[in-house]
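sorry for the late reply, my laptop died twice this morning and i had to redo everyting from scratch. anyway the thing you sent over, i finally got around to it. pasting the sequence first so we're on the same page, its 400 residues, then the predicted structure underneath. double check i copied it right bc i was rushing
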Amino acid sequence: MPRKLLLPHRAVCPPFRAPRGPHEALAMNAARSGYRVFSANSTAACTELAKRITERLGAELGKSVVYQETNGETRVEIKESVRGQDIFIIQTIPRDVNTAVMELLIMAYALKTSCARNIIGVIPYFPYSKQSKMRKRGSIVCKLLASMLAKAGLTHIITMDLHQKEIQGFFSFPVDNLRASPFLIQYIQEEIPDYRNAVIVAKSPDAAKRAQSYAERLRLGLAVIHGEAQCTEQDMDDGRHSPPMVKNATVHPGLELPLMMAKEKPPITVVGDVGGRIAIIVDDIIDDVESFVAAAEILKERGAYKIFVMATHGLLSADCAPSHRGVLHRRGGSNQHGSSRGTEAAVPQDKDCGHQPDPLRSHPANPQRGVHGLSLPQHHRRLTRVGRVKVLRVVSREIP
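ok and here's the structure:
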């Protein structure tokens, strides 16, 4: 009886089918990569940033619904499966900070309960970063927010220029604190023709370290404004200098506690020469416009003929910007101020604040590169090598 030849089983593979359209191609790309991008709110700034990121990544924006119910509660609905995927949540901070925080927490928790593998929050401006120190009988709110984010399910955060670098220690998971200084330095070199005649200015001693970093990279001089007109965080009385009094206790005369001497600031001074030069004030946040106006007036008195104000986060409180607009933009001068656009929703569109920067789209545009196998220094070198992306464009307007 002849033997039967046993042939190996040949698997039948389905024929390759090309995507039928751009939307299907984006969905297939995201599915192969194992990540999705969601927008945590429906504001114009957050939606625009999320769309720019997904376009650069070649992905499709995740389907979700975020809205406020009639009783004021926030509701989040995820409209697609995220099981086993890395999820990036884009969240900008509008005027209603607390609502934005709740949207982020609820969306992270919804993704966690939907079995997402990793949940990465992309937060250009981290809220409550100014409340990172104990003041009198207050609390360290930034630490509380870090604990809430970890409890909600976040496993990673990508942010920009934290108010204090030590805030990274509040978190129990990795935090990537990206820097905007390379792009602001690029703007100075490309858009200020005579920047070699400039001096970097810190409007308070607290900002001297950041200003020194700019000055060293640009090979420029450094100036610091110090005196009675500047109120810094270190000058605030925390109310914790002495212990409470103990009644009915015998205190040895040699053990008396020394009295704290009251602080007395010297007259306003500018440490450094700004006469006949361009003054570039750098900081991380532009919120209290009055302090920048005071610094600009002092620099004008000291002989600076051009003044620029640069910062990463332009909060620009709505009730301050219009009132001081004429001081920042004087006729005949070239005063300009600019910032990134991670908090654009904080500035109402009907308020003319005298600046129109482009979105800071390069650092957060590829968040998965720092999470999926490419270190941040490598990512930064790649961004600066390809096309020298122009990040900031400031349009100054004269006030008639």
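Residues 203 and 295 are 6 Å apart (CA to CA).
thats about all i looked at so far, will dig more tmrw
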